[in-house]
Specification:
The structure is a homodimer. By secondary structure, the first copy, chain A, is mainly alpha-helical. Chain A is built from 24 helices and eight strands. In chain A, helix 21 links the parallel strand 6 and strand 7. Chains A and B meet through helix 12, helix 17, helix 19, helix 20 and helix 21 of A and helix 12, helix 17, helix 19, helix 20 and helix 21 of B.
């Protein structure tokens, strides 16, 4: 849990400090902006950036993960709470924290149940479609604050500030790093410097409002930000536990998937191993901490984590420094934040989510696998047309479907003997001999509920193609496990074949499978025999079937 | 679609007629009883037994499947409609038909999308747990009608009739077949005869009420059953489409799973092949037909289908005869049915669902696989504690979890060369030689989103165990497909290994996989090489790694 502290070396400190500062500078505008996406006052985003990363540093495994507010999760919070409370109301804030508490509890429970293997449930195309759909939905939702109203009824001063900030941020995204390099910074420093553009734009815009008094002329601003650290929040609405259960499950699920995909990307760069169950505990603790400190659901963010890593973070200390700086920012005078114009925050959100519109997977899949393009498009359209929760459900259904489809197509080979040898191979790929009346099948997958009917169907097909069959040998050399469903199916196959005059035999049963089968009645009930090898089965049964096996 | 008609032979007729009559005699009390379980007037159960089997005969594939009302589906209907309407009200009947229409549309759509492979989604333990939980829930729900009230406030005459019927039916279930055999009937005829006990008990009890006038003394009866065939029902509540969507999806899903497991059990006995997509179309048509004729959701029933088969059904004609007889029963005077006492119908339901309490799977799994026992128990408790819909969701979650767990544990072998040969085998099982600096891994599963992270993790483990590795060869002889997620993961692995001074090579890529990879940039980006065989990789790389491969 704190193994990184024991391994801490002094040489890691400078990197951690610089990364801590850089990420804090990113976190202030991002935290406030994503709180707005979630329908909450901006300060909630700062609250959600202090305690959660501290708890994640205690319980999580990724050393460079930056845990805090994240656009998609904020969108899910807004979508879950929309039917239950008015954004800005006290109840809304209570429910947002309650959602973080419940999502955190779900994540913690999953970690304790050790079901972290669920991390790879969504295929990349599904995740990509989900992300693109959510990014477009978030950007669309920011049009109104960006322009001070929906076009054509915008508010000119707001629209000019918003679009100006948008232009500045888009320029910074494309050209700032280059300009900084030309100004003499190293490539890495220039890249990191360009990530501070949102903070600079926010400070600049706040100064403009302070100087011009545009807030008095209708430009919406953040308004008074309460100073001081967040207090302990234990408020919850007892009437809403049940209504929040389904959103909490879906949000908890996406918190895990999003954080794991960010952590995995970084772990690959460092050759680091992640413990997915430990990650669940870390994210669960972070969300419960967020709830208790008046925040809302948080997760690991790929964009911030990448900056953290690039800015030199060597350990969890970087995140602790970030959290400490944010706490300092709240203790320092926060009055200046009141004049921060909302159109500019909207611009930072739009530019941030545009960065999530990664079409490279779509382009690759288009040439490589159209089924994956369909999965991407269906999930993306699901989000756009039916909303972000429905998008998660569409993604779940598609991934489930893909898993079952794969499971239901095990590779099954009809075996023949390579003439004059003890070797048995797929008759379709090798020149082999077969014996009339003897059918040998090899199933190249563990037998379980997902594929037993496919195996049954293939057996029926082969029996129809070889009507003279009297002996069916299942060669189980590649079968590592047989579950209860498959055990029953084998028992039924044994009886049904016997009624039709075919004996079922098993060959090359692996040790662990055999140990397990001894706890069942299948072996006693088997009408055929058990052979150590396919060759032994051939020697015995090809003779019985009336053929000289040596011929 | 009507291929069975072309193959019809005259010799099949007697069996079809006798089965048609026997099933009709079962169907009358069952249909009425299951309509009551669904919260509908008994005649709706007869309606639901006429048009659906006719449409199933047209579109389905199982020749002996008996489609109609079924206890678990009726329970799901009652549970879905409970929050929306009062049982017995006109709206309730409209919504029940609407639910059949929507479930039918879902089934039809799934059939047209050809996703019948979902049939094996539930493992047998999950299905068994679900069935046991639902059976107990149904039996519990029949206590009140059985006793004329909840104990201790029952109604004595009702309780005596109900418990008397229960005792008679339990006796019949255990001993009637034996008695009939001793009376000279063949074993098969005796078995079938014993299935008619519910009809006999119902007729007997109706006669008792008619003679004693117990209905006037508080014994609840079926009441007036409208005579005549069902009319065309086009009523639907436009306010309820959205509310019924989720129940319709779950009910459609269970209709398919229940019907397929019944049909598969029979198909095994006949060595018949089922088309799961055609089944979806048949069940979809049957449910839409049920909706249009004033019924409610229907499915294939394992108990009735088994009787149909045992009574000699050779083709779909048996079901057509059953439907015709039920239509006749409605055209004939139905006045006598009015006096049928409800406590007796409750007794028939309880005995029917007791037949679903099959604990043999639980017993087998207890000795064979405790994880399957846990899945069974969790699903059963889910149904009992949280209701039948939650039980389906628990079953879905457990099955999904099991699928992902399996997918996330692909078999991966470190390969070594069998000394002096061209053969490469698992180093853990064969005496092999390996070359320092060269690591060869064989993945025994197609690479896809469900297992790429497991492959990554194993590679990191092996690299940690073999820190001198300079060449990693992935032997893809068992990889039949690489999806887009795995393609990206391989690309990332290629770069991340290269940064750490390890070259990624691929060997024994199968033809179809190679054709697909040519549509991607992986092969150009590969830092290592592509080898036709593991032996060629060894010959090239073991030398480079500083070892004489012939040594």
């Amino acid at each position: 849990m704190l193994s990184w502290l024991q391994q801490y070396r002094r040489a890691m400190l400078p990197g951690d400090i610089s990364a801590g500062i850089v990420v804090a500078m990113m976190m202030i505008p991002q935290g406030m902006a994503y709180a707005l996406v979630a329908g909450l006052p901006p300060v909630a985003g700062i609250y959600a950036s202090i305690v959660p990363p501290l708890l994640y540093a205690l319980f999580g495994t990724s050393s460079t993960q930056s845990v805090g507010p994240m656009a998609i999760i904020s969108l899910m919070v807004a979508s879950a709470l929309a039917p239950l409370a008015t954004p800005g109301s006290a109840l809304y804030g209570v429910l947002a924290a309650q959602l973080a508490l419940m999502s955190g509890a779900v994540l913690l429970a999953c970690g304790l149940l050790r079901i972290g293997f669920l991390a790879n449930f969504f295929s990349r195309p599904v995740m990509s479609g989900f992300t693109i759909g959510a990014a477009l939905l978030i950007a669309w939702g920011q049009l109104r604050p960006l322009l001070g109203g929906m076009p054509p009824a915008g508010h000119w001063p707001s629209a000019i500030m918003g679009l100006g900030a948008l232009a500045a941020l888009l320029w910074a995204r494309s050209f700032l790093a280059g300009a900084l390099r030309r100004a003499g910074l190293s490539a890495a420093a220039a890249d990191i410097g360009s990530k501070l553009a949102p903070m600079l734009v926010v400070i600049g815009a706040t100064l403009v409002v302070a100087v011009t008094g545009l807030d008095a002329r209708g430009v919406a601003t953040v308004g008074a930000v309460p100073a001081g650290l967040p207090g302990l929040n234990l408020a919850a609405s007892s009437a809403h536990w049940q209504l929040l259960l389904q959103p909490a499950l879906l949000i908890g699920f996406m918190i895990f998937l999003i954080s794991m995909s960010a952590a995995q990307a970084l772990a690959r760069k460092r050759g680091e191993q992640l413990g997915s169950n430990q990650e669940l505990l870390g994210l669960g603790a972070a969300n419960i901490g967020s709830a208790l400190s008046g925040g809302f659901p948080v997760t690991g963010s790929i964009s911030r984590s990448a900056v953290n890593f690039a800015a030199g973070a060597n350990s969890q200390l970087a995140s602790i420094i970030t959290a400490a700086l944010l706490a300092l920012a709240l203790v320092a005078p926060t009055g200046w934040l009141a004049l921060l114009p909302l159109p500019v925050l909207a611009a930072t959100i739009i530019v941030a989510v545009l960065g999530m519109l990664d079409l490279s997977l779509l382009r690759t899949a288009w040439r490589y696998d159209r089924a994956d393009v369909a999965a991407l498009a269906a999930t993306g359209l699901g989000v756009l047309v039916m909303g972000v929760e429905a998008g998660v459900v569409v993604g779940l259904a598609l991934s489930m479907g893909a898993l079952i489809w794969r499971a239901s197509r095990p590779h099954i080979a009809v075996l023949g003997r390579i003439r004059g040898s003890e070797h048995f191979r797929n008759v379709e790929r090798y020149a082999t001999e077969t014996a009339p009346g003897l059918l040998m099948l090899r199933v190249d997958a563990g037998l379980f509920f997902g594929n037993v009917e496919a195996v049954n169907a293939r057996i029926e097909d082969e029996l129809a193609a070889h009507p003279a069959t009297r002996h069916l040998v299942l060669v189980l050399s590649a079968v590592n496990a047989i579950d209860t469903s498959a055990l029953f199916a084998l028992g039924e196959l044994n009886s049904s074949l016997c009624q039709r005059g075919v004996l079922l035999h098993l060959a090359e049963v692996k040790g662990p499978v055999m140990d397990r089968l001894k706890h069942s009645t299948l072996l006693q009930a088997l009408h055929g025999r058990l052979f150590l090898s396919a060759a032994m089965a051939w020697d015995q049964l090809a003779v019985q079937a009336g053929m000289d096996p040596g011929a």
